[in-house]
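Dear support,

We are seeing what looks like truncated structure output for some complexes. This example has two components. We would appreciate it if you could run it in full and send us the complete C-alpha coordinate output so we can diff it against ours.
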Amino acid sequence: MTSMTARPADDRSPEPAQAAIRTQDLRKTYKSSRGNVDAVRGIDLNVPPGEFFGLLGPNGAGKSTTIGMLTTLVAPTGGAAWVAGHDVTRDPVAVKRRIGVVTQNNTLDMQLTVAENLQFRSRFFGLSKGAAARRADQLIDAFGLGDRKNAMADQLSGGQARRLMIARALVHQPDVLFLDEPTAGLDPQTRVNLWDILQVLHEQGQTILLTTHYMEEAEALCDRIAVVDHGQVLAEGSLDDLLADAGAQTIVTVRYAEPVPGDLAERAGLAGRPGVTKVEADGDQLRVFSGDAEGLLGDLVSLGAANGLHVRDASEAKPSLETAFLALTGREYRE
Amino acid sequence: MATTTQPAGIGAASGEDKQVASSIAALITDAPVPHPTLLKTFGAMMAREFRVLGRNAPSTFIRAVMQPLLFAFVFAYVLPKIGSGFGSAGAGAGAGASAAGGVTFATILVPGLMGSMFLMQGMFGTTMPLVMEFSWQRTIEDRALAPVPIQVLAIQKITAGAIQALIGAAIVFPVVYWVHAPGQGPHVHVTNWFLLVAVMVFASTLTASLGLWLGTVVDPRKIQMVFAVVLLPLTMLGCVYYPWSALHVIRWLQIVVLANPMVYMTEGLRAALTPGLGHMALWAIMLALVGGTAVFGALAVRTFRNRVVN
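Here is the complete output from our reference environment:
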Protein backbone atom coordinates (compact mmCIF):
# COMPACT_ATOMS: atom_id res chain seq x y z
CA MET A 1 0.00 0.00 0.00
CA THR A 2 1.43 3.34 -0.95
CA SER A 3 0.30 5.68 1.69
CA MET A 4 2.66 8.57 1.79
CA THR A 5 0.32 10.49 -0.44
CA ALA A 6 -3.05 11.87 0.59
CA ARG A 7 -5.95 9.46 0.96
CA PRO A 8 -7.81 8.85 -2.28
CA ALA A 9 -10.55 11.42 -2.63
CA ASP A 10 -13.00 9.17 -4.42
CA ASP A 11 -14.36 7.27 -1.41
CA ARG A 12 -16.23 10.05 0.36
CA SER A 13 -19.27 7.87 0.89
CA PRO A 14 -17.82 5.06 2.94
CA GLU A 15 -19.52 1.88 3.90
CA PRO A 16 -18.40 2.10 7.46
CA ALA A 17 -20.19 -1.08 8.48
CA GLN A 18 -17.49 -3.15 6.80
CA ALA A 19 -14.60 -1.63 8.62
CA ALA A 20 -13.85 -2.21 12.29
CA ILE A 21 -12.52 1.34 12.46
CA ARG A 22 -12.85 4.02 9.86
CA THR A 23 -12.10 7.71 10.11
CA GLN A 24 -12.42 10.49 7.60
CA ASP A 25 -10.42 13.66 8.03
CA LEU A 26 -10.78 13.27 11.79
CA ARG A 27 -9.76 16.41 13.65
CA LYS A 28 -9.48 17.71 17.17
CA THR A 29 -8.63 21.23 18.18
CA TYR A 30 -8.45 22.05 21.86
CA LYS A 31 -9.54 25.61 22.40
CA SER A 32 -8.23 27.50 25.36
CA SER A 33 -7.60 31.04 26.39
CA ARG A 34 -3.91 30.54 25.67
CA GLY A 35 -4.62 29.70 22.07
CA ASN A 36 -5.83 26.70 20.13
CA VAL A 37 -3.97 23.43 19.99
CA ASP A 38 -4.48 21.23 16.93
CA ALA A 39 -3.97 17.82 18.49
CA VAL A 40 -5.26 15.84 15.51
CA ARG A 41 -5.16 17.39 12.06
CA GLY A 42 -7.13 15.25 9.64
CA ILE A 43 -6.53 11.55 10.16
CA ASP A 44 -7.92 8.89 7.80
CA LEU A 45 -7.86 5.31 8.94
CA ASN A 46 -9.42 2.12 7.65
CA VAL A 47 -8.96 -0.93 9.82
CA PRO A 48 -10.66 -4.15 8.69
CA PRO A 49 -12.01 -6.62 11.25
CA GLY A 50 -9.40 -8.93 12.70
CA GLU A 51 -6.48 -6.65 12.06
CA PHE A 52 -3.83 -5.73 14.62
CA PHE A 53 -3.30 -2.08 13.81
CA GLY A 54 -0.70 0.17 15.36
CA LEU A 55 -0.54 3.93 15.76
CA LEU A 56 3.11 4.69 16.21
CA GLY A 57 4.38 8.09 17.10
CA PRO A 58 6.30 10.06 19.67
CA ASN A 59 4.66 11.48 22.78
CA GLY A 60 2.33 14.32 21.87
CA ALA A 61 1.78 13.06 18.31
CA GLY A 62 -1.99 12.89 18.78
CA LYS A 63 -2.33 9.14 19.38
CA SER A 64 -4.24 9.34 22.65
CA THR A 65 -6.53 12.06 21.33
CA THR A 66 -7.32 9.86 18.34
CA ILE A 67 -8.11 6.91 20.62
CA GLY A 68 -10.17 9.25 22.79
CA MET A 69 -12.30 10.21 19.81
CA LEU A 70 -12.70 6.62 18.65
CA THR A 71 -13.80 5.58 22.15
CA THR A 72 -16.32 8.46 22.45
CA LEU A 73 -14.63 10.22 25.36
CA VAL A 74 -13.18 13.02 23.24
CA ALA A 75 -15.52 14.98 20.97
CA PRO A 76 -14.09 15.46 17.46
CA THR A 77 -14.06 19.03 16.14
CA GLY A 78 -13.99 17.90 12.52
CA GLY A 79 -14.36 14.91 10.25
CA ALA A 80 -16.08 11.67 11.13
CA ALA A 81 -15.31 8.29 12.64
CA TRP A 82 -17.06 4.93 12.76
CA VAL A 83 -16.27 2.06 15.06
CA ALA A 84 -17.86 -1.32 14.42
CA GLY A 85 -20.10 0.44 11.94
CA HIS A 86 -21.41 3.07 14.36
CA ASP A 87 -20.77 6.78 14.23
CA VAL A 88 -18.83 7.79 17.34
CA THR A 89 -20.57 11.16 17.69
CA ARG A 90 -24.09 10.19 16.62
CA ASP A 91 -24.34 6.88 18.43
CA PRO A 92 -21.73 6.73 21.17
CA VAL A 93 -23.71 4.19 23.20
CA ALA A 94 -23.69 1.67 20.33
CA VAL A 95 -19.94 2.22 20.00
CA LYS A 96 -19.35 1.77 23.72
CA ARG A 97 -21.22 -1.54 23.64
CA ARG A 98 -18.77 -2.87 21.08
CA ILE A 99 -15.41 -1.64 22.30
CA GLY A 100 -13.00 -2.53 25.05
CA VAL A 101 -10.63 0.21 26.12
CA VAL A 102 -7.36 0.11 28.00
CA THR A 103 -6.35 3.67 28.70
CA GLN A 104 -2.85 4.85 29.38
CA ASN A 105 -3.70 5.92 32.92
CA ASN A 106 -4.82 3.45 35.55
CA THR A 107 -8.60 3.79 35.59
CA LEU A 108 -9.30 0.75 37.75
CA ASP A 109 -11.97 1.28 40.39
CA MET A 110 -9.71 1.66 43.41
CA GLN A 111 -12.57 1.16 45.84
CA LEU A 112 -13.23 -2.34 44.55
CA THR A 113 -11.28 -5.59 44.61
CA VAL A 114 -9.78 -7.21 41.52
CA ALA A 115 -12.72 -9.60 41.18
CA GLU A 116 -15.25 -6.83 41.79
CA ASN A 117 -13.69 -4.67 39.10
CA LEU A 118 -14.42 -7.43 36.61
CA GLN A 119 -17.80 -8.39 38.06
CA PHE A 120 -19.22 -4.89 38.06
CA ARG A 121 -17.89 -4.12 34.60
CA SER A 122 -19.59 -7.31 33.40
CA ARG A 123 -22.81 -6.19 35.03
CA PHE A 124 -22.51 -2.72 33.46
CA PHE A 125 -22.65 -4.64 30.19
CA GLY A 126 -25.81 -6.47 31.17
CA LEU A 127 -24.51 -9.79 32.48
CA SER A 128 -26.45 -11.26 35.37
CA LYS A 129 -24.78 -11.45 38.76
CA GLY A 130 -23.98 -15.14 38.29
CA ALA A 131 -22.73 -14.79 34.73
CA ALA A 132 -20.62 -11.81 35.80
CA ALA A 133 -19.00 -13.82 38.59
CA ARG A 134 -18.21 -16.68 36.19
CA ARG A 135 -16.78 -14.32 33.58
CA ALA A 136 -14.66 -12.64 36.25
CA ASP A 137 -13.24 -15.98 37.40
CA GLN A 138 -12.48 -16.96 33.82
CA LEU A 139 -10.63 -13.68 33.22
CA ILE A 140 -8.76 -13.87 36.53
CA ASP A 141 -7.50 -17.36 35.66
CA ALA A 142 -6.49 -16.49 32.12
CA PHE A 143 -4.61 -13.39 33.21
CA GLY A 144 -2.88 -15.11 36.10
CA LEU A 145 -4.41 -12.91 38.79
CA GLY A 146 -5.71 -15.79 40.89
CA ASP A 147 -3.71 -14.96 43.99
CA ARG A 148 -4.72 -11.27 43.79
CA LYS A 149 -8.41 -11.96 43.32
CA ASN A 150 -9.53 -10.34 46.56
CA ALA A 151 -6.86 -7.65 46.70
CA MET A 152 -8.00 -4.07 46.36
CA ALA A 153 -7.24 -2.66 42.94
CA ASP A 154 -4.87 -0.05 44.36
CA GLN A 155 -2.63 -2.76 45.81
CA LEU A 156 -1.62 -4.18 42.43
CA SER A 157 1.79 -3.83 40.83
CA GLY A 158 2.03 -1.94 37.55
CA GLY A 159 2.03 -5.13 35.49
CA GLN A 160 -0.86 -6.67 37.41
CA ALA A 161 -2.90 -3.49 37.07
CA ARG A 162 -2.31 -3.44 33.33
CA ARG A 163 -3.32 -7.08 33.00
CA LEU A 164 -6.47 -6.41 35.00
CA MET A 165 -7.28 -3.45 32.77
CA ILE A 166 -6.94 -5.62 29.66
CA ALA A 167 -9.05 -8.33 31.30
CA ARG A 168 -11.66 -5.72 32.19
CA ALA A 169 -11.72 -4.47 28.60
CA LEU A 170 -12.55 -8.00 27.44
CA VAL A 171 -15.50 -8.78 29.75
CA HIS A 172 -18.14 -8.17 27.09
CA GLN A 173 -16.31 -9.64 24.09
CA PRO A 174 -15.73 -6.33 22.32
CA ASP A 175 -15.53 -6.09 18.54
CA VAL A 176 -12.57 -3.76 18.81
CA LEU A 177 -10.00 -3.62 21.57
CA PHE A 178 -8.25 -0.27 22.04
CA LEU A 179 -4.93 -0.23 23.84
CA ASP A 180 -3.36 3.14 24.54
CA GLU A 181 0.33 2.65 25.33
CA PRO A 182 -0.37 -0.62 27.12
CA THR A 183 3.23 -1.36 28.02
CA ALA A 184 4.42 2.14 28.91
CA GLY A 185 6.29 2.05 32.18
CA LEU A 186 6.40 -1.74 32.45
CA ASP A 187 9.58 -3.76 32.90
CA PRO A 188 10.78 -5.67 29.80
CA GLN A 189 9.66 -9.07 31.07
CA THR A 190 6.14 -7.90 31.83
CA ARG A 191 6.05 -6.20 28.47
CA VAL A 192 6.89 -9.37 26.57
CA ASN A 193 4.36 -11.23 28.68
CA LEU A 194 1.69 -8.75 27.59
CA TRP A 195 2.81 -9.07 23.99
CA ASP A 196 2.19 -12.82 24.21
CA ILE A 197 -1.33 -12.22 25.51
CA LEU A 198 -2.09 -9.72 22.76
CA GLN A 199 -0.81 -12.08 20.08
CA VAL A 200 -3.05 -14.87 21.29
CA LEU A 201 -6.03 -12.51 21.27
CA HIS A 202 -5.11 -11.46 17.75
CA GLU A 203 -4.86 -15.06 16.62
CA GLN A 204 -8.43 -15.57 17.84
CA GLY A 205 -9.56 -12.82 15.47
CA GLN A 206 -9.70 -9.96 17.95
CA THR A 207 -9.44 -6.60 16.19
CA ILE A 208 -6.92 -4.52 18.07
CA LEU A 209 -5.86 -0.90 17.75
CA LEU A 210 -2.73 -0.20 19.72
CA THR A 211 -0.84 3.01 20.20
CA THR A 212 2.77 2.92 21.16
CA HIS A 213 5.90 4.94 21.08
CA TYR A 214 8.02 1.81 21.18
CA MET A 215 9.15 0.94 17.67
CA GLU A 216 9.92 -2.66 18.56
CA GLU A 217 6.42 -3.06 19.94
CA ALA A 218 4.81 -1.95 16.69
CA GLU A 219 7.23 -4.14 14.76
CA ALA A 220 6.57 -7.18 16.92
CA LEU A 221 2.79 -7.03 17.04
CA CYS A 222 1.11 -5.07 14.30
CA ASP A 223 -0.15 -6.21 10.90
CA ARG A 224 -0.23 -2.62 9.81
CA ILE A 225 1.22 0.52 11.25
CA ALA A 226 0.36 4.18 10.84
CA VAL A 227 3.23 6.47 11.72
CA VAL A 228 1.77 9.64 13.25
CA ASP A 229 3.37 12.89 14.24
CA HIS A 230 1.96 16.36 14.83
CA GLY A 231 -1.59 15.02 14.54
CA GLN A 232 -1.16 13.57 11.06
CA VAL A 233 -0.48 10.20 9.52
CA LEU A 234 2.91 10.36 7.84
CA ALA A 235 2.85 6.87 6.41
CA GLU A 236 0.76 3.77 6.71
CA GLY A 237 1.13 0.14 5.77
CA SER A 238 2.73 -3.10 6.78
CA LEU A 239 6.21 -2.93 8.19
CA ASP A 240 7.66 -3.98 4.82
CA ASP A 241 5.57 -1.34 3.01
CA LEU A 242 6.76 1.33 5.37
CA LEU A 243 10.38 0.40 4.96
CA ALA A 244 10.06 0.32 1.19
CA ASP A 245 7.99 3.53 1.01
CA ALA A 246 10.30 5.43 3.24
CA GLY A 247 13.25 4.27 1.16
CA ALA A 248 14.68 2.80 4.30
CA GLN A 249 18.37 2.30 4.10
CA THR A 250 20.98 0.15 5.59
CA ILE A 251 23.41 2.47 7.27
CA VAL A 252 27.05 1.37 7.18
CA THR A 253 29.35 3.26 9.51
CA VAL A 254 33.12 2.82 9.64
CA ARG A 255 35.25 4.54 12.25
CA TYR A 256 38.97 4.96 11.52
CA ALA A 257 41.85 5.71 13.81
CA GLU A 258 42.64 8.82 11.78
CA PRO A 259 40.48 11.70 10.55
CA VAL A 260 38.81 10.98 7.22
CA PRO A 261 40.20 13.22 4.45
CA GLY A 262 37.42 15.49 3.16
CA ASP A 263 37.75 14.39 -0.44
CA LEU A 264 38.05 10.65 0.25
CA ALA A 265 34.43 9.78 -0.48
CA GLU A 266 34.47 11.75 -3.69
CA ARG A 267 37.73 10.24 -4.88
CA ALA A 268 36.44 6.75 -4.24
CA GLY A 269 33.20 7.52 -6.11
CA LEU A 270 31.06 6.22 -3.23
CA ALA A 271 28.02 8.33 -4.14
CA GLY A 272 27.99 6.71 -7.56
CA ARG A 273 27.68 3.18 -6.20
CA PRO A 274 24.35 1.53 -6.99
CA GLY A 275 21.83 1.99 -4.16
CA VAL A 276 23.77 4.64 -2.29
CA THR A 277 21.70 7.71 -1.46
CA LYS A 278 23.88 9.58 0.97
CA VAL A 279 27.50 9.67 2.11
CA GLU A 280 28.57 11.48 5.24
CA ALA A 281 32.15 12.07 6.37
CA ASP A 282 32.20 13.19 9.94
CA GLY A 283 35.55 13.47 11.75
CA ASP A 284 36.94 9.97 11.95
CA GLN A 285 33.71 8.39 10.66
CA LEU A 286 32.41 7.57 7.25
CA ARG A 287 28.65 6.85 7.05
CA VAL A 288 27.00 5.50 3.90
CA PHE A 289 23.22 5.15 3.42
CA SER A 290 22.40 2.51 0.88
CA GLY A 291 19.50 0.40 -0.31
CA ASP A 292 21.99 -2.22 -1.45
CA ALA A 293 24.61 -2.72 1.22
CA GLU A 294 26.07 -5.95 -0.18
CA GLY A 295 29.85 -5.78 0.11
CA LEU A 296 29.79 -2.15 1.14
CA LEU A 297 31.30 -2.67 4.54
CA GLY A 298 34.25 -4.61 3.15
CA ASP A 299 34.83 -1.99 0.48
CA LEU A 300 34.95 0.79 3.06
CA VAL A 301 37.51 -1.14 5.09
CA SER A 302 39.77 -1.69 2.08
CA LEU A 303 39.21 1.90 0.96
CA GLY A 304 40.57 3.05 4.30
CA ALA A 305 43.54 0.67 4.07
CA ALA A 306 44.40 1.95 0.59
CA ASN A 307 44.50 5.48 1.98
CA GLY A 308 46.52 4.72 5.09
CA LEU A 309 43.56 4.70 7.48
CA HIS A 310 43.23 2.07 10.18
CA VAL A 311 39.76 0.76 10.94
CA ARG A 312 38.83 0.92 14.60
CA ASP A 313 35.15 0.07 14.42
CA ALA A 314 32.57 -0.86 11.80
CA SER A 315 28.82 -1.36 12.00
CA GLU A 316 25.85 -2.01 9.80
CA ALA A 317 22.34 -0.88 10.80
CA LYS A 318 19.62 -2.80 9.00
CA PRO A 319 16.49 -0.97 7.78
CA SER A 320 14.05 -0.54 10.63
CA LEU A 321 11.12 1.53 11.69
CA GLU A 322 13.65 3.82 13.31
CA THR A 323 15.45 4.51 10.03
CA ALA A 324 12.07 4.80 8.30
CA PHE A 325 10.90 7.34 10.84
CA LEU A 326 14.08 9.30 10.34
CA ALA A 327 13.51 9.29 6.61
CA LEU A 328 9.86 10.36 7.03
CA THR A 329 10.29 13.13 9.54
CA GLY A 330 13.89 14.05 8.97
CA ARG A 331 14.58 13.87 12.65
CA GLU A 332 15.50 11.50 15.42
CA TYR A 333 12.71 9.52 17.00
CA ARG A 334 12.10 10.79 20.52
CA GLU A 335 10.45 8.24 22.77
CA MET B 1 18.27 -2.06 16.60
CA ALA B 2 15.54 -4.65 16.57
CA THR B 3 14.47 -5.95 13.23
CA THR B 4 13.03 -9.27 14.24
CA THR B 5 9.28 -9.38 14.44
CA GLN B 6 8.97 -12.02 17.14
CA PRO B 7 9.17 -11.03 20.77
CA ALA B 8 11.22 -13.36 22.89
CA GLY B 9 9.33 -16.28 24.27
CA ILE B 10 6.62 -16.61 21.67
CA GLY B 11 8.43 -18.96 19.34
CA ALA B 12 9.50 -21.28 22.10
CA ALA B 13 6.28 -21.75 23.98
CA SER B 14 6.61 -24.14 26.88
CA GLY B 15 3.76 -26.34 28.06
CA GLU B 16 2.75 -23.81 30.65
CA ASP B 17 2.75 -21.03 28.09
CA LYS B 18 0.49 -23.09 25.86
CA GLN B 19 -1.95 -23.54 28.70
CA VAL B 20 -2.02 -19.81 29.37
CA ALA B 21 -2.47 -19.19 25.65
CA SER B 22 -5.44 -21.53 25.46
CA SER B 23 -7.10 -19.94 28.47
CA ILE B 24 -6.60 -16.50 26.89
CA ALA B 25 -8.00 -17.82 23.63
CA ALA B 26 -11.01 -19.21 25.49
CA LEU B 27 -11.85 -15.66 26.59
CA ILE B 28 -12.80 -14.97 22.99
CA THR B 29 -14.21 -18.33 21.97
CA ASP B 30 -16.08 -19.00 25.20
CA ALA B 31 -17.55 -15.62 26.09
CA PRO B 32 -21.02 -14.80 27.36
CA VAL B 33 -23.11 -12.62 25.08
CA PRO B 34 -23.94 -9.39 26.87
CA HIS B 35 -27.34 -7.76 26.52
CA PRO B 36 -26.99 -4.42 28.24
CA THR B 37 -30.06 -2.29 28.84
CA LEU B 38 -30.21 1.12 30.38
CA LEU B 39 -31.94 -0.25 33.45
CA LYS B 40 -29.47 -3.13 33.97
CA THR B 41 -26.49 -0.82 33.66
CA PHE B 42 -28.04 1.74 36.00
CA GLY B 43 -28.82 -1.00 38.48
CA ALA B 44 -25.28 -2.38 38.29
CA MET B 45 -23.87 1.10 38.90
CA MET B 46 -26.08 1.50 41.97
CA ALA B 47 -25.04 -1.95 43.16
CA ARG B 48 -21.41 -0.85 42.85
CA GLU B 49 -22.27 2.26 44.88
CA PHE B 50 -23.81 0.19 47.68
CA ARG B 51 -20.87 -2.21 47.66
CA VAL B 52 -18.51 0.70 48.23
CA LEU B 53 -20.81 2.28 50.82
CA GLY B 54 -21.03 -1.04 52.62
CA ARG B 55 -17.27 -1.46 52.59
CA ASN B 56 -16.82 2.04 53.98
CA ALA B 57 -19.78 1.69 56.34
CA PRO B 58 -17.88 2.34 59.58
CA SER B 59 -16.29 5.55 58.35
CA THR B 60 -19.46 6.61 56.55
CA PHE B 61 -21.46 6.04 59.70
CA ILE B 62 -19.05 7.95 61.90
CA ARG B 63 -19.01 10.84 59.43
CA ALA B 64 -22.80 10.88 59.39
CA VAL B 65 -23.40 10.49 63.10
CA MET B 66 -20.81 12.83 64.61
CA GLN B 67 -22.42 16.10 63.61
CA PRO B 68 -25.95 15.40 64.88
CA LEU B 69 -24.57 13.69 67.95
CA LEU B 70 -22.49 16.68 69.00
CA PHE B 71 -25.18 19.16 68.07
CA ALA B 72 -27.77 17.28 70.10
CA PHE B 73 -25.38 16.87 72.99
CA VAL B 74 -24.50 20.56 73.19
CA PHE B 75 -27.86 22.08 72.33
CA ALA B 76 -30.27 19.57 73.85
CA TYR B 77 -28.22 18.45 76.83
CA VAL B 78 -25.42 20.82 77.81
CA LEU B 79 -27.14 24.14 77.13
CA PRO B 80 -30.48 23.28 78.75
CA LYS B 81 -28.54 21.96 81.78
CA ILE B 82 -26.57 25.17 82.26
CA GLY B 83 -29.37 27.33 80.87
CA SER B 84 -31.28 27.36 84.18
CA GLY B 85 -28.25 28.89 85.83
CA PHE B 86 -27.66 31.47 83.11
CA GLY B 87 -31.20 32.65 82.82
CA SER B 88 -33.11 33.04 79.60
CA ALA B 89 -30.84 35.75 78.18
CA GLY B 90 -27.47 34.13 78.51
CA ALA B 91 -27.80 30.57 77.34
CA GLY B 92 -28.16 31.14 73.66
CA ALA B 93 -31.07 30.64 71.37
CA GLY B 94 -31.76 27.19 72.76
CA ALA B 95 -32.59 28.14 76.27
CA GLY B 96 -34.19 31.33 74.98
CA ALA B 97 -36.63 29.51 72.78
CA SER B 98 -37.26 27.01 75.47
CA ALA B 99 -38.05 29.67 78.00
CA ALA B 100 -40.11 31.80 75.65
CA GLY B 101 -42.44 29.32 74.01
CA GLY B 102 -42.28 26.22 76.13
CA VAL B 103 -40.77 24.52 73.12
CA THR B 104 -37.59 22.55 73.63
CA PHE B 105 -34.66 23.55 71.47
CA ALA B 106 -34.41 19.95 70.31
CA THR B 107 -37.74 20.47 68.61
CA ILE B 108 -36.41 23.43 66.67
CA LEU B 109 -33.14 21.66 66.06
CA VAL B 110 -34.52 18.49 64.42
CA PRO B 111 -35.50 20.10 61.09
CA GLY B 112 -32.43 22.33 61.06
CA LEU B 113 -30.07 19.51 61.81
CA MET B 114 -31.65 17.32 59.16
CA GLY B 115 -31.34 20.13 56.65
CA SER B 116 -27.67 20.53 57.39
CA MET B 117 -27.19 16.77 57.15
CA PHE B 118 -28.83 16.78 53.75
CA LEU B 119 -26.40 19.39 52.60
CA MET B 120 -23.33 17.79 54.16
CA GLN B 121 -24.00 14.22 53.12
CA GLY B 122 -25.48 15.03 49.74
CA MET B 123 -22.54 17.17 48.77
CA PHE B 124 -19.99 14.85 50.31
CA GLY B 125 -21.57 11.93 48.53
CA THR B 126 -21.28 13.51 45.09
CA THR B 127 -18.47 16.06 45.24
CA MET B 128 -15.81 14.05 47.02
CA PRO B 129 -15.80 11.04 44.64
CA LEU B 130 -15.50 13.45 41.72
CA VAL B 131 -12.30 14.86 43.13
CA MET B 132 -10.74 11.44 42.78
CA GLU B 133 -12.46 10.53 39.52
CA PHE B 134 -11.44 13.70 37.72
CA SER B 135 -7.89 13.82 39.05
CA TRP B 136 -5.01 12.95 36.74
CA GLN B 137 -5.83 9.24 36.54
CA ARG B 138 -9.38 10.06 35.47
CA THR B 139 -10.88 6.90 36.91
CA ILE B 140 -14.24 8.30 35.80
CA GLU B 141 -13.47 6.69 32.44
CA ASP B 142 -14.16 3.32 34.05
CA ARG B 143 -17.88 4.07 34.23
CA ALA B 144 -17.96 6.56 31.36
CA LEU B 145 -17.29 3.60 29.05
CA ALA B 146 -20.36 1.74 30.26
CA PRO B 147 -22.89 1.35 27.45
CA VAL B 148 -25.20 4.20 28.49
CA PRO B 149 -25.23 7.93 27.71
CA ILE B 150 -22.99 9.97 30.00
CA GLN B 151 -26.11 11.76 31.21
CA VAL B 152 -27.33 8.51 32.75
CA LEU B 153 -24.09 8.25 34.68
CA ALA B 154 -24.69 11.80 35.97
CA ILE B 155 -28.22 10.90 37.07
CA GLN B 156 -26.88 7.76 38.72
CA LYS B 157 -24.39 9.87 40.66
CA ILE B 158 -27.14 12.24 41.79
CA THR B 159 -29.24 9.27 42.86
CA ALA B 160 -26.39 7.75 44.84
CA GLY B 161 -25.62 11.08 46.51
CA ALA B 162 -29.28 11.61 47.33
CA ILE B 163 -29.50 8.21 49.00
CA GLN B 164 -26.49 9.06 51.15
CA ALA B 165 -28.12 12.37 52.04
CA LEU B 166 -31.34 10.59 53.02
CA ILE B 167 -29.47 8.15 55.23
CA GLY B 168 -27.52 10.99 56.80
CA ALA B 169 -30.65 12.97 57.56
CA ALA B 170 -32.52 9.95 58.87
CA ILE B 171 -29.76 9.35 61.43
CA VAL B 172 -30.78 12.64 63.05
CA PHE B 173 -34.05 11.17 64.37
CA PRO B 174 -32.66 8.49 66.67
CA VAL B 175 -29.80 10.70 67.80
CA VAL B 176 -32.00 13.59 68.83
CA TYR B 177 -34.48 11.24 70.48
CA TRP B 178 -31.84 9.65 72.67
CA VAL B 179 -29.47 12.48 73.37
CA HIS B 180 -31.05 15.23 75.43
CA ALA B 181 -31.44 16.42 78.99
CA PRO B 182 -34.47 15.13 80.90
CA GLY B 183 -37.60 16.83 79.60
CA GLN B 184 -35.69 18.43 76.73
CA GLY B 185 -36.64 15.85 74.07
CA PRO B 186 -38.00 17.00 70.74
CA HIS B 187 -41.71 17.14 70.10
CA VAL B 188 -42.14 16.06 66.54
CA HIS B 189 -45.57 15.52 65.15
CA VAL B 190 -45.99 14.36 61.59
CA THR B 191 -49.46 15.09 60.30
CA ASN B 192 -48.64 14.91 56.62
CA TRP B 193 -46.41 11.99 55.74
CA PHE B 194 -46.67 12.75 52.06
CA LEU B 195 -45.24 16.21 52.68
CA LEU B 196 -42.40 14.78 54.76
CA VAL B 197 -41.46 12.25 52.08
CA ALA B 198 -41.70 14.86 49.32
CA VAL B 199 -39.53 17.33 51.22
CA MET B 200 -36.93 14.67 52.05
CA VAL B 201 -36.75 13.34 48.51
CA PHE B 202 -36.42 16.75 46.91
CA ALA B 203 -34.08 18.06 49.58
CA SER B 204 -31.73 15.14 49.04
CA THR B 205 -31.81 15.28 45.24
CA LEU B 206 -31.31 19.05 45.38
CA THR B 207 -28.18 18.76 47.52
CA ALA B 208 -26.82 15.90 45.42
CA SER B 209 -27.40 17.93 42.25
CA LEU B 210 -25.70 20.92 43.82
CA GLY B 211 -22.79 18.69 44.82
CA LEU B 212 -22.41 17.22 41.35
CA TRP B 213 -22.61 20.65 39.76
CA LEU B 214 -20.00 22.13 42.09
CA GLY B 215 -17.78 19.08 41.71
CA THR B 216 -17.76 19.47 37.94
CA VAL B 217 -17.33 23.24 37.68
CA VAL B 218 -14.71 23.64 40.39
CA ASP B 219 -11.11 22.58 39.89
CA PRO B 220 -10.68 19.41 41.98
CA ARG B 221 -7.59 20.89 43.59
CA LYS B 222 -9.64 23.78 44.93
CA ILE B 223 -12.43 21.67 46.32
CA GLN B 224 -11.43 22.46 49.91
CA MET B 225 -12.34 26.04 49.16
CA VAL B 226 -15.84 25.01 48.13
CA PHE B 227 -16.43 23.67 51.58
CA ALA B 228 -15.28 26.90 53.19
CA VAL B 229 -16.95 29.28 50.77
CA VAL B 230 -20.13 27.34 50.01
CA LEU B 231 -20.89 24.67 52.56
CA LEU B 232 -20.14 26.64 55.69
CA PRO B 233 -22.17 29.80 54.86
CA LEU B 234 -25.03 27.73 53.49
CA THR B 235 -25.17 25.77 56.73
CA MET B 236 -24.70 28.66 59.13
CA LEU B 237 -27.23 30.81 57.29
CA GLY B 238 -29.62 27.98 56.47
CA CYS B 239 -32.10 28.64 59.28
CA VAL B 240 -30.79 25.67 61.21
CA TYR B 241 -31.08 27.18 64.68
CA TYR B 242 -34.09 29.43 64.13
CA PRO B 243 -37.09 29.49 61.82
CA TRP B 244 -36.91 31.78 58.82
CA SER B 245 -39.81 33.90 60.16
CA ALA B 246 -37.72 34.76 63.22
CA LEU B 247 -35.34 36.62 60.95
CA HIS B 248 -37.89 39.39 60.38
CA VAL B 249 -36.01 41.45 62.91
CA ILE B 250 -33.05 41.52 60.49
CA ARG B 251 -35.01 42.18 57.35
CA TRP B 252 -32.06 42.36 54.93
CA LEU B 253 -30.72 39.02 56.11
CA GLN B 254 -34.18 37.48 55.86
CA ILE B 255 -34.21 38.46 52.18
CA VAL B 256 -30.61 37.52 51.45
CA VAL B 257 -30.97 33.98 52.82
CA LEU B 258 -33.76 33.33 50.33
CA ALA B 259 -30.94 32.60 47.89
CA ASN B 260 -29.82 29.76 50.15
CA PRO B 261 -31.37 26.44 49.06
CA MET B 262 -30.91 25.06 52.53
CA VAL B 263 -33.46 27.50 53.93
CA TYR B 264 -36.18 25.74 51.97
CA MET B 265 -35.05 22.34 53.20
CA THR B 266 -35.16 23.31 56.86
CA GLU B 267 -38.41 25.22 56.42
CA GLY B 268 -39.90 22.33 54.50
CA LEU B 269 -38.95 19.97 57.30
CA ARG B 270 -40.47 22.39 59.82
CA ALA B 271 -43.69 22.32 57.83
CA ALA B 272 -43.64 18.52 57.90
CA LEU B 273 -42.33 17.85 61.41
CA THR B 274 -43.29 20.81 63.57
CA PRO B 275 -46.12 22.53 61.71
CA GLY B 276 -47.30 24.17 64.92
CA LEU B 277 -44.18 26.32 65.19
CA GLY B 278 -44.76 28.18 61.96
CA HIS B 279 -42.89 28.01 58.69
CA MET B 280 -42.52 29.62 55.32
CA ALA B 281 -45.44 29.31 52.91
CA LEU B 282 -45.65 25.78 51.60
CA TRP B 283 -45.90 26.79 47.95
CA ALA B 284 -42.65 28.75 48.21
CA ILE B 285 -40.89 25.81 49.84
CA MET B 286 -41.98 23.29 47.25
CA LEU B 287 -41.39 25.66 44.37
CA ALA B 288 -37.81 26.19 45.53
CA LEU B 289 -37.13 22.51 46.24
CA VAL B 290 -38.64 21.12 43.05
CA GLY B 291 -37.48 24.01 40.87
CA GLY B 292 -34.01 23.94 42.42
CA THR B 293 -33.71 20.20 41.83
CA ALA B 294 -34.76 20.63 38.21
CA VAL B 295 -32.45 23.57 37.55
CA PHE B 296 -29.35 22.31 39.36
CA GLY B 297 -30.01 18.73 38.24
CA ALA B 298 -30.12 19.76 34.58
CA LEU B 299 -27.12 22.02 35.06
CA ALA B 300 -25.11 19.28 36.78
CA VAL B 301 -25.91 16.69 34.10
CA ARG B 302 -24.70 19.15 31.50
CA THR B 303 -21.50 20.21 33.21
CA PHE B 304 -20.73 16.62 34.16
CA ARG B 305 -21.03 15.49 30.55
CA ASN B 306 -18.80 18.31 29.39
CA ARG B 307 -16.21 17.34 31.96
CA VAL B 308 -16.22 13.67 30.93
CA VAL B 309 -16.32 14.21 27.14
CA ASN B 310 -13.89 16.95 26.31
